[in-house]
Amino acid sequence: QESVPEKTELLKDKKVLIVYLSRTKNTKALAELIHQKVAGDLVSLELVTPYPEHYQTTVDQVANENATGILPPLKTKIDSIEKYDVVFLGFPTWGMQLPPPMKSFLNQYDLGGKTVIPFNTNAGYGIGSSFETVKQLCPNSKILEGFSTKGGKERDGILFVMEGNKEKQVQAELQSWLKKIGLDQLKK
Ligand SMILES: Cc1cc2nc3c(=O)[nH]c(=O)nc-3n(C[C@H](O)[C@H](O)[C@H](O)COP(=O)(O)O)c2cc1C
């Protein structure tokens, strides 16, 4: 009689990468909470030329990049992307789209054959087209249901919100989301 491996046994062998973009640290905090639950390698996406401090200048630059298809060069290098089975992609909503640096990342690294899971923070207007763009840019990946929560609203001077009750609430939501997508047993 053949023995069927336990689901948790299968998940245990997976190599996880969590890569995120964050300006005011909300998505970073979310990435760290996910990392606490699933472990793996946690990587912040940095640009060769960082965006300006000034909010509106950044909004305008992003709008121009989105309109022209400019992919800002990444300073961050991933050491042998092939070794990962599961890749979490974290980003804020920018101009109701996937931020250009994440487009750069998906253009540069082939995630084909891997399981890809998006997560997001935004000012309350939602994910826009960002998750859809992840799907388009990862045509040969298995994309699982993403996670999104309200973060800051830099336009109104609200920067970091992922603390206190908000953090506790997000932790609970993350737990049930990971369970729902079957990844709550990743951590060894
Ligand atoms: C350039 C820029 C554009 C943004 N555009 C949107 C948007 O279109 N919709 C939205 O809900 N929030 C928007 N935001 C707000 C961020 O998504 C929100 O503050 C998020 O939590 C920031 O994540 P972070 O702290 O990891 O940088 C924008 C922020 C920036 C800096």
TrEMBL record:
Q: Where is the Flavodoxin-like domain?
A: 16-182
Report the domain of life of the source organism: Bacteria
Record-linked InterPro entries: Flavodoxin/NO_synth (IPR008254), Flavoprotein-like_sf (IPR029039)
**Iron is among the record's keywords:** no
- UniProt keyword terms in alphabetical order: Signal
Could you tell me what this protein is called?
Flavodoxin
Q: What is the lineage of its organism?
A: Bacteria, Pseudomonadati, Bacteroidota, Sphingobacteriia, Sphingobacteriales
